[in-house]
Amino acid sequence: MKFKASFQARIAGVLIVLLLIVVSAVYIAVKVATGEAVRTQAQAQLEVGSRVFERLIDLRGKRLRDTVQLVAADFGFRDAVASADSSTIRSVLLNHGKRINASDMFLLGMDGTVIASTVQKVPEGSRFVYDQALRNAKRAGQSVLIVPGGGDPHLLVEATVLAPLPIGRVVMGFTIDSDIAEELRSLSGLEVSFLTVEDGKNGDLISTQPEALHAGLIELMRSSSEGQMLLTEQSNLNFLSQTLMLANTNNGGDGQVIALLQSPLDKAYQAFAPLNQKIFWISMAALVASLIGTL
Predict the structure, then answer these.
(1) Residues 182, 163 share a domain
(2) For the chain, is the Cβ count within 10 Å smaller at the N or the C terminus?
(3) Is residue 102 part of a domain?
(4) CA dist 69 to 93, 162, 234, Å?
(5) Does residue 2 form part of some domain?
(6) What is the pLDDT of residue 127?
(7) Residues 84, 124 contacting (CB under 8 angstroms)
(8) Average pLDDT, the chain
(9) Is residue 290 part of a domain?
(10) What is the pLDDT of residues 212-258, one digit of tens each?
(11) Number of domains in the chain
(12) Are 243 and 227 a contacting pair, CB within 8 Å?
C-alpha cells in the first residue's frame, strides 16, 4: 500500500509540474502575442499618422502660400513695393502680416537681397539667409519651407510681386506653436513634438506631451536616426516613436527642425488587460481542477 501511495504521489507530482509548465507556457504565449499585437497596431498607427502629419503640413503650407499670394497681388502692396521706400514697405508688411497672423515679414529683391524686414536680426541690405533654400523648395514644387528661427520652428512662404514684371519677393514666416501641435495631434492621433537646433543649441520644445517628459524627449530627438521607429519609455510611459527631419538645408548655420511623432502603447496594453486576467484565472481554475482530479 505504501508503495502504491508513493507511486501515486510521484505521478501526481509529475502531473502537477507538467500542468504548471503548460499553464505558464499558455499564459506567457498569450502575453507575448498581445504585446506583439499592440506593437503592430501602434506601428500601423504611426505609419498612417506620419503620412497624415506630412500631408497636413503640406496643406497648411499651401493655404499660407495662397494667402501670401493674395497679399502680393494687392494693389496697395504692389504700389508700396514699387515706391522702393523701405519704411513704407515695412509698414505695409506689418499691416498685412497682422491680418494673416504672420510672425515675420520680409521683402526681398529678385537677387535675394533684403529690401525690408520686420525682424531686427535680419537687416536690410543683407543677403537673406534662406534665399537659396527658398529657390530650391520652389524648384522642387514645395509650397512651404520649414526653418528654425529664434528657437522656434517657422513655416516660410514666398510669393512674387508682379507689376507686371517681377519687382520683388515677399516672404512671410509663421511660427509653429503649441496650437498647431495640438491641431496636428487631434488630426493624426499621435503625440507631436517640435525642436529646433541652431549652432548646436536646442530651442524651446513645442510638444503635446506633459512638461515632465520634455527633457527625455529632447534627448531622444537629438539621438534618434531620422525615420527609425523605436520603442521608447519616458517616465514609465511607453511609446512607439519616430523622428522626422523637417529642416536640414545641409548648411550648418541654417540649423535643423526635428519633429517627433509618438504612438502611446499603454492604453493599448490596458485594452488587453481584461483578456490577460481572464486567461490567468481560467488557467488557475484548470490547474486546481486537475490537481483535485489527481488526488
Answers:
(1) no
(2) N
(3) yes
(4) 13, 10, 43
(5) no
(6) 93
(7) no
(8) 82
(9) no
(10) 999 999 999 988 888 788 888 888 888 888 898 887 554 545 578 99
(11) 2
(12) yes
